[in-house]
Amino acid sequence: MPELLLELLSEEIPARMQARAAEDLKRLVCDGLKAAGLSFTKAEAFATPRRLALVVDGLPEKPQPGKEVRRGPRVDAPQQAIDGFLKSLRRSSVNDEGIVKRETEKGTFYFFEASTMPRQAASELRLIICDVLDHIPWPKSMRWVSGQTQLWIRPMRGILAIFNGENLNFKYHMIHSMQVVQNPTEKNTIFASDTTTGHPFLTPKPFKVKNFADYKAKLRKAKVILDPAERREKIQAEAEKLAKKAGLKLKRDPGLLDEVVGLVEWPVAKLGAIDNAFMELPPELLTTVMRHHQKYFTLTDAKGRLAPRFIVILNTDTRDGGKAAVAGNERVLRARLADARLFWDQDRKRRLESRVGELGGRVFHAKLGTVWDKVGRITALAETLARHCKADPADAARAATLAKADLSSGMVGEFPELQGVMGRYYALHDGEKPDVAAAIAEHYSPQGPADDCPSKPVSVAVALADKIDTLVGFWAIDERPTGSRDPFALRRAALGVIRLVIDNQLRVPFGEIILSAINAHEKTGLDFSKTVWSAAAKIAQLNEKKVLEAGTKYYPYRDFGYSILAFLNDRLKVHLREKGIRHDLIDAVFAVEKPGGGKEDDLARLLARVDALAKFLKSSDGANLHVAYKRAANIVRIEEKKDKKRYDGAYDLTLLAEDEERMLATFLAAATEAAVEALKNEDFTTAMAALARLRRPVDDFFDHVTVNCDDAKLRENRLRLLSGIGSTLDRVADFSKLEGGER
User: Fold this and answer.
1) 699 φ, ψ to 5°?
2) Read out DSSP for 651-719?
């Protein structure tokens, strides 16, 4: 069947935008084909620095007839709305051909229905491609000719469009297609053809192609590898081969590999050398300069140390085997490292501590003060957290005080990626304790699921303090994440908190810590009376007896703190769901109050409950008891609604008439007592085991006892007994939030 081949040739597209652009091109073209009634079997998109390509297989030569359906206003809508609908259809009456009435869930509406006559496939494809070119999204765009209205990422140089072996032969006007182009010129018009070009330096001569197979083969001959996956494999293989030949090992860097794939069409790997004089610089500094600024791959020796070699990926073959290109890259690297060494030497002439005061000139956020203010907050918070992290409070406070100081250094000003890392080196140079220095480097971590999580107590305390301060501050000024935006990376901060707690098995009372963070924010100028939480504060002062107090002031802790805990809970669901744990288990456990009252704010205790509940529900006793709970809860709920009264009070032992209900009451009392005692000791497995013993008496009750009997007193007492099942189970977890449980 016919094939569509489309190539959009332009100047170099930024590497980070190529994959998304190729997918957008594929999506928009495929959507257009479906809308036009053109079926297809397969579509593949490709990207290089200079071109986006798409091949669609299995297209018909002629589209199938279609049907246009448009919904109009309700039949009882104002006449003006109906007239507008008729005018858009060029009709004069609702009785004209194609207009029908149709019943919907929202009432009776006018609809317009008409068959659409298929155009030739080539004609449809021209319209689809031009429409896609008008609407393909780019993070950033530009205009490059006078009067141009259509935006594109870089100046477009050509369109190759072939259908069924023939050139589609159309013009694309860069002045928006909805506008009339009076005098199309080559400056504002691109002519589609069956011709493209290869590598801009090695084989710039244009050539014609017939189909995708011919196109891909001729591109390769013209020194262009179309498929990014193939370029990636070639880069990886050549780099590893060079490293092995030099007796070294290529350092794994998937992110850099992806970026370099988007920088070259014909990758050629070459080995370069680093001057030994620069090898005394910190390896992180060398790696940053090579990776972020020069896009070089780093190598390590047999002991894992950074080697004085690098691999550069050229985008061309050279007559001298790359000698001049490698020498040029070595010269550029030498200059960059010389600058870095100058910063390294200059920065160490001052103690790191002397730079802390300069943070007062750096704004953290207009509503949250300076970086110096933040340092003061996290210092106090780290000292509080230290006892929960088994860290020395003085060391934690010292590390927090110095944590941001390297932001004022020349090195971090030139290489922002090294913040924290350089602070560690400068702290060690100044004679600070190793744990303090390590905490300075690690307090930003973990920054993602693949990032290492700090494990040293001081590092954990400072990292937690930094992230909790960020969460509380931005929450207070109502800069919470939405579905489409999270400009301050609060989701990442929350996941960092969760990983720090889970990976290090910490017991952190977040309610207390959040209150400490609120207090610290108020000391640095944040007035809660002027935040969105001020209304909650007033309500708490008037109506809430158990509001926490700091000094003589009451805080909107209950609602504010619960909101942050709920956010952490949501992030915890994401974290656990990736490990295969059901989110409803977290909901069920989180809904239960912690010992002493209030929402559960100890993640370690929360996870222990979740784990015990998961194991309980996997057992036959747990699964069957969950079913019985649902049955009992449904009966009680239905009868409460019918009777307009609650049955959650105590049942009367003297009214237990049947053996099965007396047996259930006995087991229920024993299970409640055992569960309460186990929960006090945080022995959730034993608590679940106590509940499991309820399975048989509950089953026997439902098999032999009639709840809605004729005796009103017996009926009410039995409903209270059933309600007691829920009350007992809900001490461990809110079983109503668990999914399933139906027979």
Assistant:
1) -60, -45
2) PPGGG--SHHHHHHHHHHHHHHHHHHHHHHTT-HHHHHHHHHTTHHHHHHHHHH--SS-S-HHHHHHHH
Cα 143 versus chain centre, distance:
32
- Give the mean pLDDT of the chain: 88
Cα separation, 717 vs 715, whole angstroms: 5
Q: Cβ-count burial of 151 within 10 angstroms (0-12 exposed, 13-18 middle, 19+ buried)? A: middle
Helix axes 603-618, 620-643, angle to 10 degrees: 100
Rounded mean pLDDT of 286-302? 95
The secondary structure of residue 38, as a DSSP letter, is: -
Report long-range pairs for 592-600 (Cβ below 8 Å, ≥24 apart).
Answer: 592/730, 592/731, 592/732, 592/733, 592/734, 595/679, 595/680, 597/546, 598/511, 598/546, 599/511, 599/562, 599/565, 600/565
The total number of structural domains that make up the chain: 5
Q: Is 310 helix (H, G, I), strand (E, B) or coil?
A: strand
The pLDDT score that the predictor gives to residue 512 is 86
CATH of the domain at 539: 1.10.3210
Whether residue 537 lies inside any domain: the answer is yes
Determine whether 310 is exposed, middle or buried from the number of CB atoms within 10 Å of its CB (0-12, 13-18, 19+): buried
Question: Which tens digits make up the pLDDT trace of 534-576?
Answer: 544 444 444 444 444 433 344 445 667 778 888 988 888 888 8
Looking at the fold, whether 55 and 73 belong to one and the same domain comes out as no
In terms of residue numbers, what domain contains 679? 619-737
Are residues 392 and 373 both part of a single domain? Answer: yes
